[in-house]
Design goal:
Helices cover about 30% and strands about 25% of the residues. The chain is built from 7 helices and 8 strands. A 4-stranded antiparallel β-sheet has the order 6-7-5-8, covered by helices on one side. Strands 1-2 form a two-stranded antiparallel ribbon. A two-stranded antiparallel ribbon has the order 3-4. The protein is elongated. It starts with 19 loop residues before the first helix and ends with a helix.
């Protein structure tokens, strides 16, 4: 999915002449901590944050005075996974989308992007989560899928992360369509895969609470 498909029309950018006071009001009203600054020609000038606004003593100062350097943005055709990396890299709550010559196309709230990632990774669906630690030389997706499907289950989503800089070992996280993982874990261990952790959504109330707390934090 392209990031352009997630642009939220109701999210209003700031104009260069908007004051710090108005910017604070807009951020509070839209429940975000960043807003893009766009001129009359539709050019993205930059992004201002609530942290920048708090450091300004004069509430009548125009936000154009706070814009510095090349504006952070993504192109409309960027995949949502790559867009999420930009959000994390810059700590944004709003991601501007711009075409050629910084022409502003709209913005995507970080919360909206997170919700889409959750849907794409099937994290909202019931099912257990397994974490495996695997040597790079032993990693084969077909073998993992075969082990799971052998137990009449399916992998809803799969995430691979390196455990060290050399990428000689990986953490593989599997989201399954079943909640009872006893048989699957037995088969995986028998095939030489190390199951480092298992989370069953029926029983792991602590995991559920951590996810809900994280979602509430992003809505602040």
């Amino acid at each position: 999915m392209r990031i352009a498909q997630l642009i939220q029309e109701g999210l209003q950018p700031l104009s260069p002449g908007d004051t710090v006071h108005r910017a604070r009001e807009q951020m509070a009203a839209q429940r975000v901590r960043h807003l893009p600054v766009v001129n009359e020609a539709g050019e993205l000038l930059g992004v201002v944050s609530d942290e920048q606004l708090r450091l300004v003593d004069d509430p009548n100062l125009p936000v154009a005075m706070l814009v510095r350097g090349t504006p952070v943005s993504v192109t409309p055709d960027l995949h949502v996974f790559d867009a999420a990396r930009v959000v994390l890299q810059h700590g944004l709550t709003v991601l501007p989308v711009a075409g050629s010559n910084h022409h502003y196309r709209g913005a995507v709230p970080g919360q909206h992007l997170l919700e889409q990632l959750i849907r794409m990774l099937s994290l909202h669906e019931p099912g257990a989560i397994l974490e495996l630690e695997i040597d790079a030389r032993d990693y084969a997706l077909s073998n993992l899928l075969y082990c799971v499907e052998q137990c009449d289950a399916r992998v809803r989503a799969l995430v691979v992360e390196p455990l060290d800089a050399s990428e000689s070992r990986f953490r593989v996280t599997l989201k399954l369509n079943v909640q009872d993982t006893a048989r699957i874990r037995h088969v995986l261990e028998h095939r030489g895969f190390h199951v480092a952790a298992a989370y069953n959504e029926e029983d792991d109330e602590e995991l559920r609470q951590r996810i809900e707390a994280f979602m509430r934090y992003l809505e602040v």
